[in-house]
Amino acid sequence: MIRMKLILTEADGKFYEVNTISVNINNTVYVKLTEYGESVLKSNTYSKFEDGDFNCKMKEGYYRMSLWEFMRIFGKRFYMGSQQMIVDNELFIVEGS
After folding, report:
1. Which of 12, 40, 63, 71 could form an SS bridge with 75, CB 3.0 to 4.6 Å?
2. 77, part of any domain
């Protein structure tokens, strides 16, 4: 993960600084899902082993997957006013994964 400051210019010529990080979509993320989020995951057959268990659930209640897989599974269900799928709307990204 790379941290850097960007200096950006508005259309009216005003400058402002923003702190940024770069994230690779192959990085591993950890999320705690709501009941609805778990139902979305369960409807996704690509996340299951042959015995029907989900290959990404951790004992502590977090689910582990790559960021691109998270976006593929949940992306189309995220929109303004959508039902909450992630506890506290937080996901955790592992640096350098």
Report:
1. 71
2. yes
What is the C-alpha separation between 82 and 75, in angstroms, rounded? 11
Task: Tell whether 19 is covered by a domain.
Answer: no
Residue 7 lies in a domain: no
Domain residue limits at 60: 24-93
Residue 75, amino acid: G
Tokens of 6: 């960007």
């005003």: which residue's tokens?
Answer: 14
Mean confidence (pLDDT) of the chain: 81
CA 4 vs. chain centroid, Å, equals 21
Residue 29 lies in a domain: yes
